[in-house]
Design goal:
The protein has 140 residues and is of the alpha+beta class. The protein has helices spanning 2-15, 49-67, 75-95, 112-134; strands spanning 21-25, 28-35, 98-103. The chain has a three-stranded antiparallel sheet. Helix 2 runs antiparallel to helix 3 (75-95) and helix 3 runs antiparallel to helix 4.
């Protein structure tokens, strides 16, 4: 995930200038945005706070995964979250901002790492819910 994310972002940075928009397919556009905040630009300009929150979230996912290794297929969404967060963290550390480039109508621009994080978190919540429901309350 990390390599795919960084490869596509590199191609976008090499071929599209910040603010440029290109029609891609139907309502889907390519647009290069430099996002210093988190989702939807929230906390824009927060400096070191965003990378610190990212590291804390990555640590939380690793701890959860480490304590739930028996949860069926949990490694897939955990990998999506970790790979996506690492891709965006790499951008922040290298350039001070994340490169977003996928644009849908009435929705802020996002990137492959954002999709991986979103899908991974939703799947982890579902797995945690299923795992928690299947576990007997008397079990240690």
């Amino acid at each position: 995930m990390l390599l795919l994310d960084q490869g596509v972002k590199s191609a976008v940075r090499a071929n599209i200038i910040v603010g440029e928009r290109r029609d891609l397919l139907g309502p889907l556009d390519l647009v290069r945005v430099s996002n210093q905040g988190v989702a939807f630009g929230f906390m824009n300009g927060a400096g070191w706070v965003v990378p610190a929150i990212t590291v804390a979230a990555l640590t939380g996912v690793l701890i959860w995964f480490g304590t739930h290794t028996s949860a069926y297929l949990a490694w897939i969404p955990a990998g999506l979250v970790l790979g996506g967060a690492a891709g965006n963290l790499w951008d922040r550390l290298q350039a001070g901002a994340v490169t977003d480039f996928i644009k849908l109508p009435h929705w802020p621009a996002f990137n492959i790492a954002d999709m991986a994080i979103t899908i991974g978190v939703v799947a982890l919540v579902a797995i945690a819910e299923i795992y928690g429901r299947d576990k007997n309350p008397q079990d240690p």
